[in-house]
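job 3f2a | input accepted
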Amino acid sequence: MRKRFGQLLDNAAVFRYHRQRILDYGPGSPGALGWHADSQQVRFKMLAQIADLAHCSVLDVGCGYADLYPYLRQRFAGVHYHGIEQMPELLALAQARYRDAPDITLATGDFLRQELPLSDYVLASGSLNYRQRQPGFIFQAIETLYASSRLGLGFNLLSWEPAGGGPLVAYDPADIVAFCQSLAPTVELHEGYRDGDFTVFVYR
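job 3f2a | predicted structure (204 res):
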């Protein structure tokens, strides 16, 4: 019971953070998600290097406005995109934007507390950066998402906490890589593409 209550408090903090940013930056903007427009594109570029995603299924967890969908569609023929998002305001706008778009499905839910569809690649851009009361949360999250991938998992995290970052939290890249190496035969760490940010690829 206490664990579930803590999860609800954590989710509420995330919702408050994004609802305030929607007020500040406007619905549908990268700022509403906590990004600058250029930083979102830099992170997408890094994640898209996980593999040739042409004709692959990609699960985008915590997809926000599903901005990753057009980015991938422009670069990979036949990519099949599935996004999952628990915040209603974000999901509703994504569904409106891509109602008639090909090869996309969008669903509501908490991607760490429900069954996920098995996909070739699972990607998480920013969705694991939130502070959680549950001990070992990040490691359980990585293990859960890796289990939903046929070929690999890619995610980015913060290596330092931004000023005024609200519920955002940073991690030591060495700790994250060491855990991923306990799960998978091949793990890649990518740094240097943006200050305070790192990306990890975990392959089967």
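job 3f2a | The CA atoms of residues 24 and 52 lie 37 Å apart.
job 3f2a | closed
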